Fold each of these.
Amino acid sequence: MNKAARPRVVLGVSGGIAAYKACELLRRLTESGHEVRVVPTEAALHFVGAATWSALSGQPVATGVWDDVHEVPHVRIGQGADLVVVAPATTDLLAKAAHGLADDLLTNTLLTARCPVVFAPAMHTEMWEHPATRENVATLRRRGALVIEPAVGRLTGVDTGKGRLPDPGEIYEVCRRVLARGVREPDLTGRHVVISAGGTREPLDPVRFLGNRSSGKQGYALARSAAARGARVTLVAANAALPDPAGVDLVRVGSTAELREAVLKAAATADAVVMAAAVADFRPVAYAPGKIKKRDGQEPDPVALVRNPDILADVSQHRARPGQVVVGFAAETEDVLDNGRAKLRRKGCDLLVVNEVGERKTFGADESEAVVLGADGSETPVPFGPKEALADTVWDLVVARFPGAPHQ
Ligand code: CTP
């Protein structure tokens, strides 16, 4: 990448044990061509020293406003940034940012930055849930910052709960998307979206199932994109072997019945539901509690199947909230648009993403091509490209359909 065109990122690091994970985030950013200035707090240096930040970033490192005063760094660093990401963001740092305090270089930088700002909080569950932190997070979000929900898991001591810093690779993915969009305000802030992903498996016996080849990549791309645009995301993932996206509430399921239960539960509070999962249309009538055995000299019994309920049709036809936007996916091999239109009407959804199944478009690919059909008659072609681009187009179309939005 041309040096002059390198996006300038400020990586703020505040004083929590997860500071060591920010080294990995820094590496990802620098290796992908970003110019990164690390601004730790004084407390952060108890966990990772200035020499590490300086060596990894190739830039000077200071915590206070009294170093290199002739360069006015407390103003310049923020002004010149294309993105500020604070990882980990402690409860103290969030409080200072929400109240506009400016007692060190990082808090000054946050006040002078006019670019998108991402906070990746990490703290104990009690601190995250405390009303003071809740209010500070709400204030920051209202002002246009992206505050990533912490992950659930092992915390510093023996305890577990919500408060872990998400995987640095996934925080990097959020930063990449926010930088690519280049807009200050995340347009899904305050929205709850539900996405199903992967492929359901219908058990035949304890060791066998009927399944499909869906990788879950499109659903995960939708979840990553929605989280980077500020949404509260529930990702209902059926048998997907992919890294957990940052800031996403992940519900793992196996069968269609489990997927249906999880989607309907989450849909009760959702502004949008996107059914990207490949749902098995049929399941075995009977489940054998013991492994089905071969019988000498006998052909196996045919597997009797029964139809599964149509979750997309259910969600579309019994909207849990007025104005809820519902999106389906369809794979078609012929008469793509006609079949897609008929399916859109049959299911009753607002948008249907129609993929033509062909040579280049196989399950598990990172790229796809589609047309998004709208119940209002609209047709949005999405050229062959990354699933991430299709995800952003879907969210653009969803946002335009939220009640009160100016329709495109
Ligand atoms: N879907 C669902 N519940 C089912 C089956 C499918 O919610 N039991 C959803 C999928 O998540 C997807 C859309 O419906 O959003 C796909 O519809 P479907 O009728 O299964 O279309 P195709 O798989 O393309 O198959 P067909 O043309 O055979 O109907």
Amino acid sequence: MDTPAKTPERPTVLLDHYLKLLKLPTVKREYRNVAAACAKEGKDAVEFLARLCERECFEREQRAAERRIRAAAFPAIKTLDTFDFAAQPSINRPLVTQLMRGEYLDERENILLMGNPGTGKTHIAIALGHAACAAGKHVRFQTVTALVTQLLEARDNKQLGRLHKRLDRCHLLILDEFGYVPFTKTGAELLFEILSRAYERQSVILTTNLPFENWTEILGNERLTGALLDRLTHRVHIIEANGDSYRLKTAKRRNKKETRETPEKPASP
Ligand code: ADP
Ligand code: MG
């Protein structure tokens, strides 16, 4: 390799090139600032290198978490910061807070969010998924109906094995809205297969408005329902939300506010 000439620009041109080759974008962007700060504070080269490496690692992890969040395909980003527990006192807050720490993922435990529509089940499921992504886990969010449709299509196209492999790579499967649409016999069997594969290998979060005794109506087969519930609920945390719909409450509040703020229209002549 050539020895670089001692011009002031040449070493940084080369350095920028090496940092690009080594895929160290943060070091490349920051080394001048960090060098200036270290010089000012009288810090040595080891400290300089340590600071740069720390920034590179931090930003790399952030980028990876963002990629995991995009890959999870959440319908919206929701976190617990925006969840008003006071509006939904039926929800076991200490349990939700504990689950946010993610130990259930290491134990391959499941979470069932059960309750009326509009009580924040999907919100909490997304918040848990978001926290899992930030903690380095691979997550996939889907409505149960979308998943079953995808499984049926994959089966028809002889791509089921491929889809199974893709799902197997996730640490956490979030299946939203079980109970709104009944499945065909094949659809129910394919869903059962997913939950069987996940059993003790992945965590599943499932949201539903349907009490257990009605699950057969959706799955169409009592024996299959029993076997599915057996796997899903073997190691499960149940979060129940039985209050009023938050959507309805906020809509009512908005309506009231609007009626208060809209001046009375004069009666038409
Ligand atoms: P569910 O899945 O139980 O039908 P969602 O989680 O979709 O309900 O909630 C409906 C909407 O209301 C969402 O926009 C959600 O963010 C919001 N929401 C529900 N409950 C709360 C709450 N307690 N605090 C803040 N927002 C809430
Ligand atoms: Mg929902």
Amino acid sequence: MKTLSIFTTLLAVSAAKKCVVRNPTDSAKTNDVKAPVTDDIPSDNETPVNVDENTPLDKEEDSGIENSDIENSEDKPKGKLPADFKWGAATAAYQVEGAWNTEGRGESVWDHFTHLYPMNVESSDRSNEDSTNGNVACDSYHKFDQDIAMMKIMKANHYRFSISWPRLFPEGQAKKVKGKWNVNKEGVEYYDMVIDTLLENNITPMATLYHWDFHTLSMKSMVVGRLPFTRRFAKYAEFCFEHFGDRVKNWITTNEPWVNCVSGYRLGPGKAPYRCTGEAPRKLANDTAGLDLLGGCSYEIGPSQYTKNHEALTANRPPQRLEDVWCSHNILIAHAKAVNVYRKKFQKKQKGLIGITIDGEAQIPWQDDKTTPEELENNKKYANLAAEFRIGWYSDPPMIGDYPESVKQRMSKDMPVFTDEEKALLKGSSSDFLGWNTYTAHWAEQVKNEDGTYVQPPTDEEANFENSKRDMWDDNCRGRGEGWTCIPPTLGSQAGSSWNTKFAPTIRVGLNWFSKRYEGLIKNGIVITENGCAQPNYKVARANDEVTKKYFESIGQPKYADTYKEEDIEREDNLEGTLMHDTYRIDWYDQYLKNLRLAYAVDNIDVRGYMAWSLLDNFEWENGYETRFGMTYIDFYNDKEMKRVPKDSLEHLGQWYLENVEQN
Ligand code: GAL
């Protein structure tokens, strides 16, 4: 067994999403791959994606996707997307609104975190106090009319935004007494304005109730006792349905519980509420991104419940090493309770749809010229297993009412258990539609020991959190060198965030995975609720490219190993360059959207929408304003007016829409 501990592995998995920084001098060690493996490429008229009819809910199976399928279906899109395809862009309240303490808004965990730990947020201008928080952000609170103008350029017919809980309920707890809510009037007026302005502009609102900015009041109850948080959330949701539901017909309860909990509780340094579940306070190694992370975690939000060894003192509280697991559990229950309120009290009359948005990378079975057919089969099995851990953990409960068997079995007693009542509430709670945020992909295989034998899955006796994934993810990143924390390793060319790589087939592979797993269970299809990238920049090293190239060459698909040229690299000081003329981002959208169309037109996947992340450059969490995901440029540090300037990609997407979606 390789020496890196499973524990480190798990942390690294968490890090993969948002916090990974790496050493630019790490050079990719090559993987000795040679001849392309092309034998099994089907002919042009075969169905390119191999979807098995069996529903693999309770057994380990492969993902059903042939690597060769990706290539072979390349030129086959037929039929445009339908006229009612949901098309638009996404943002989140804390990332764009600003006005953090105006007109009665209360404090969210993100205010709390950024104000307490400004050094945990990247900034190139620390003399600017707002550069490390969302105090001002894009000031969409005052400039929403300009945001609408940007949506128009991309021909958006939907806009995904989120509602800030503390803006509506500054005290945290929503209450209705004698028919009157204790709500902040100004907050309500703001969202009324947003919704009405959207509708006046023929843009359908898609509202997320919770995008990581919960009220500080819920910081403890999020993990230590499930009831306060889940009840509070359902009450807050009830107000939103009651007041906005006459106009909002697309509700997303929560955004990406995995990132929220794993980054916020397990990883600590980069995301609120800055817990370090299971790990000693630490500074990230190889910090090239300019973060100067403070050691320590925010134990002040509840240290007294822990002993020195971070074990829980009282019963009924999860041990600190499992806070992220419990946070996830509670968010899922909170989601189900909110859906229940909507279904019981509002849906019939308001006729809207409600679902959850989860994230998660599609898992691609590893293959190179040394991979035997048996190994490939095994890697496919592992791709499904890894997907159950990375995605199914969050998507199974709202679809089928419980965690995947593999997760329960391998986590054993470390896995919280849903009560029968919770299971019943959860089951089908995202059957109206499933929201999926997709960015990158991971390689999947069974990990090998130094001597070439396979690392074995944990036995029943060994099963627990720490052992649960030990045979699933290779901890040496396919030879990318020391100093990486990238497990499971990502695949594709390096975009402008350490965790984000361009591997467009991921969207198609993932859509097929969901579709097969939940066949017949999703009534209004899957909606891509986020997808996008930051242009490559100098803050993130590109050590991924060489290995990716070898991988794709080995399976006869060299064109997927695309990379970028020096001139694609974004430079803050060059407005004439790729900051505004964002060619890499345009190519990203082209490739992902092509794969989405293939999934729709060739694989018959019921995909109903696509929201690009993001409409605007905005507060990119621990990366502050230094990492730009927007299709609209804002000069955060120098322009007091925060003028919105469309980048090339915004217009490009408008054109894509006209050409690829049926026009009425
Ligand atoms: C998602 C998140 C967004 C945005 C995006 C790009 O995980 O929901 O808020 O930050 O990633 O990093």
Amino acid sequence: MQAKKSLGQNFLVGAHYPTRIVASVAPQPNETIIEIGPGHGALTELLVATEANVVAIELDQDLIPELTAGFAGHSNFRLVVADALKVNFCELIQPATAARVVANLPYYVSTPILQRLIEHRACIREMTLMLQREVVERIMAKPGGKEYGYFSALVQFYCEAKKLFDVPPGAFRPIPKVHSSIVQLRLREVPAAKVHDEAFFIELLKALFAQRRKTIWNNLRASKGKFNCDEVTLRVALETAQLDPQRRAETLSLEETARLANQL
Ligand code: SAM
């Protein structure tokens, strides 16, 4: 079957990488594992063999007959034909209340899918994801570096991130133009910085990073309407949080941004 570029289909071939990925998850019998994009089942086969309850979400209708034929005989396998950008993961896994996620994500939607998974953190404990190497670098980046941005801050606020290993283009068919890495994200019990209002903190992060090359002062001023406050209030909040208005968002630690959020 022809791989569909439009669905980010680069299938893992050979046993080496699927085995390493599933071994780093070490699924336990009866726990719930969500797999996004099972494709031809390279990871699914190993996941199902662990006796974990596997809920696989696949968007491509053309892959469904093969997946059904391959796994329908296993009572610990459930196939959901849906868009991972639209499903409610918490409803999907019921009666279970928590799951771990394993996925070789379609790269064209990997960041929105990851953001959606984070939104469902109430029922997700951990995610082991294959992503484009640059995306993993952004996730792992520290404040101050050029890779650090809104996405890094968002993921680090909610997750403890660990890069596991790289996967070369030759591990896939068709061979992608990009390199890949496996990252493991453990959802934190409480966010990495203490904030009064998480939703507000996220809105503030977005505003601070709205224009990367601008100072935090200029970015804040541009969205003062959104925060319903005037320039004097912004100045006072920055001063109380002990932040120089001329800094850029990528230099702020989560703790510093939290200090500012708690003043506004
Ligand atoms: N897991 C397989 C493997 O490792 O060989 C396939 C991985 S392939 C990179 C991505 C898979 O995600 C494909 O099967 C593709 O059809 C599926 N997919 C693409 N967009 C999706 C979406 N929005 N929701 C769910 N699955 C999607």
